[in-house]
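Fold it.
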Amino acid sequence: MLRQFELVERVKSYDPNADEEGLNRAYVFAVKMHGSQKRESGDPYFSHPVEVAGILTEYKLDYATIVTALLHDTVEDTAASYADIEGLFGKEVADLVEGVTKLSRIQTQSEHTKQAENFRKLVLAMSEDIRVLLIKLADRLHNMRTLHFCKKEEKRMRIAQETLDIYAPLAERLGMNKMKDELEDLAFKQLHPDAYQSIITRLKFLREKGGNLTNEIVEQLKKDISEAGLDAEVYGREKRPYSIWRKMNRQNIPFEQICDIMAFRIVVSNIADCYHALGIIHTKYPMIPGRYKDYISTPKSNGYQSLHTGVIGPFKQRIEVQIRTKEMHEVAELGVAAHWQYKQNMAPSVDGKQFRWMRELLDLLNNSTNSDEFLENTKISMYNDQIFCFTPKGDLIGLPKDATPVDFAYAIHSNVGDHCMGAKINGEIKPLRTVLQNGDQVEILQSKTQTPSPEWERFVVTAKAKAAVRRFIRNQKRIQFMELGRSLIQNLYKEEKQPWNDKEVEAVLPAFKQPTLDDLYVMMGEGIVLASDVFYKIHPEKRSTFQKVVNIFKRKQNTNKQEENDKNSLIKGLISGISLHYSRCCHPVPGDKIVGIVTTGKGVAIHRHDCPMLKKYASEPERWIDIDWNDSVSSDKVFPVRLLITVTNKPNTLATISTTVSKAQSNISHLFTVSKSSGFMELSMDVDVRNTQHLEDVMSALKNLDVVLSVKKEK
C-alpha cells in the first residue's frame, strides 16, 4: 500500500502546483473514516481507496480526481456526508464523490438487477463528468487485482464477466490500453483459468527456448534505423494472454500458428520520421501482405495513432512492427488522461473524435425502449474493429468492420439514414447490403418518400443504424395497433347502437392505467386490453346484453351446425368459420391437451394447457374456450416443434441427425447452434410432426444415436 508521503510525491512529480495540504488531509480523512473496516483479503479497508488513487497517479490525473479517489467510498461506507466532503474539500470534489457513490449503490444492487440497467446508469453518470468513469475504472482494476480473495465463485464469475463485457471495452474507448489489457487478463484468469495457465506456460517456454532472440531482434532493428540516419527508441512487447486466446478463438487456429506473439515498437520524434522508419523496415525486410495499417492518417475513434506492419524480420522471424511518435505512444498507453484538460481548470471537451462514441451512447440511451436493447447495441458499438470510408467531399467516416452504406448513412446523420434509398460506392451504384471496404468513397442517394425498411435490420452492424430501424418498426407497429384499437372500439359502439365519443373513452384512462387515448388504443389493438372491457367500463348497463351474446355463443357450440363443423375441422369446440392460429410460444400438436384464447383481431389462439403464457389471461375467464383435437379427422398438416439436443462435436454429426429425422418421416425446418465447446454442441432444432406420437417417434430415433447425449422438447 502507498504511504502518505509517497502518494503526495507522485502527484507533485507531474503537478507541482497541486494542493499538498489537501492531499494529506484527504489521506488522513479516508484512514480515519474507514477506521477498523476490513476487506475480504484481511487488509485494512482504507488500503483500497489509497491504491485506487495510486492507479490514477500513473495516468497523471488532476488533484480533484486523486482526492476523490481517496474519498470515493466514504459517503457510501462510513458516517461521512456530502456536506462533510464539501466543507473540507470543496464542491467539485463533493460532486465527484457523489457521482461515484451513485455508481457504487448501483453495483451493490446489481446482484438482483440486470447488468443492462446498471450500465445504463453508468453511461448517464459518466456523461455528466467523465472523471467519474476514470475513478470507477481504477476502482474496478484494484478490485480485479484482489478478486481471488472473494470466497463466492458465482460472485467472482459475475464480476469478471462484467469486467470483460463493460469495463475493459470502456477503457479501450478512452484509449487507456494499458488498463484495458490488465482488466482483460485478470477477467480471463478468473473465467478460464485452465486456458490462461496454458497460454502462460507456453509463453514461458517460448521465452526460454528463444533465449535472447527478442533482444537480438531489437538490437538489429536499432542498427537498421541508426544506419539510415534516424534517431529512435526500439523495444519488444509480448502479446497479452487474453489477446492471444481471443485471436485463437476468432481465427480458429492453434497457439503455434500465431505469428505476432512478439510485437516491436519503434518510437520516433515526429510524423515524418514515422513514415521514414516504415520505409526503412519495408526496404530491409519483406512485407507480409495484408498486415499494413495506417492509423496515423486515419486514427481510431479513441485517438489511437500508429503505423502497423508485418514483415519477415531479422533471423527470418515473422514479426509485427508498430511505429509511432512519443506523443502517440503516450496517448496509446494513457488515452484520454494523456492530454487531460482539467489541469488548467478547464471544462472537459467532449467535441473531439474520441468522445463521439459517448454522444452516440447517449443517443442510444435516449432512443432505446429497454435496458437489454441498450446493452446489446452498446456492445456492438464498443467491440467492433473499424474501417474508414470517405464522403464525396472527402470527410472521413469511421465504421465497424462489415458496415454497409446504410450504416454509413446513419453515421452522417439520422435523417440521411432514414431517407437512404441507394448508394454509389466509388462511383458505381451498389446494393445497400454491400459490405464497405477501407478507403471506399460512398455517396448516399436519398428520397423524401423513403423510410427505413425492416430488411435493413438483417445487415446493418452499427448500433445507431440498428436502433433507428428498430425505432421506426416500433413506431409503425404502434400506429397500426393504434388504428386497429380505435376501429375495434368504434365498431363495438356501432354494434351497440351507441354514438361514438372520444371523450367517453378518455374518461376511463385511469381505470386501465394508460396516460393517453393513443396508448389505450394500442393496448386494445395488441389484444392486451379487450375493447369490450373498455366499452362496458363506460356503459356498465350494456354488460347484460354482452352476457346474452356470450350465452348465444355457448349455445352455438352445441348446435348441429357446430357438430357438422367439428366433423371437418382439426379442432372441436369452435364456432363455424372462426379464424384460429397455433401459438408459437408453446407449439401445440395433435395429442396435446389444449385450450383456446380469444384474441382481438386474430380469432382464437390455440395453446397447450401448460403454456406459461396462459398466466396473463388468468383474470379474464371470458376469453377461454374449451376445445380439443378432432381425432376423427385425418390431415397431412404438420406442426413445428422445437427440440433442444446435446450432441458430441464430431465430423458428420449433423449429417447423421438430418438423415435420422428424414427416416422418421419428418423434416428439419430450422437449426442453429446454442453453444459449442471442444467436445459437445447444444442445438436448437425445429422439426415438423403430425401429432404427439410422431414427435415421440422422432425423439426416440434421435435418442438411439451414439452422437446424441440428450433430447428434450423446449417448453
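The longest helix spans residues 463-495.
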